[in-house]
Automatic annotation (TrEMBL):
Keywords: Coiled coil, DNA-binding, Nucleus, Transcription, Transcription regulation. Residues 53-104 form the BZIP domain. This is cAMP-responsive element modulator-like isoform X2. GO terms for molecular function: DNA-binding transcription factor activity, RNA polymerase II-specific; RNA polymerase II cis-regulatory region sequence-specific DNA binding. Residues 78-105 form a coiled coil. It is found in: Nucleus. Signal peptide: none annotated. The keyword Transcription regulation applies. PANTHER family: CYCLIC AMP RESPONSE ELEMENT-BINDING PROTEIN B. The lineage of its organism: Eukaryota, Metazoa, Chordata, Craniata, Vertebrata. It comes from Petromyzon marinus. CDD domains: bZIP_CREB1.
């Protein structure tokens, strides 16, 4: 049984890949792939880590901005409700006074 090694360079990540081909006496072939990180591959993994961190920070900033906008809208909505309550209270008070006046007029006419 013979063993052959092929050394291939993977350009994007600077990883070395070894393909081991074994040839048996019956003519069957088996292939085993192994990947070994080179020192420059560690820089690539550091870059990936920095990229993940950067994306996480961006996501957190977007979430904070969305939360800030949500709080602002909620505050505006509550302020509108408070204004509406004030207007309706004034209107209710006016209607109660008008009703009292009409009752007094009706009672005075009945007598």
């Amino acid at each position: 049984m013979g063993v052959m090694f092929e050394n291939e360079k993977a350009a994007p990540s600077d990883m070395q890949t070894y393909q081991i081909c074994t040839v048996g006496s019956s003519g069957q072939q088996g292939v085993i792939m192994a990947t070994v990180a080179s020192p420059s591959g560690l820089q690539g993994s550091m870059y990936i880590g920095e990229e993940v961190t950067r994306k996480r920070e961006i996501r957190l900033l977007k979430n904070r901005e969305a939360a800030r906008e949500c709080r602002r809208k909620k505050k505006e909505y509550v302020k509108c409700l408070e204004n509406r309550v004030t207007v309706l209270e004034k209107q209710n008070k006016t209607l109660i006074e008008e009703l009292k006046g009409l009752k007094d007029m009706y009672c005075n006419k009945a007598e």
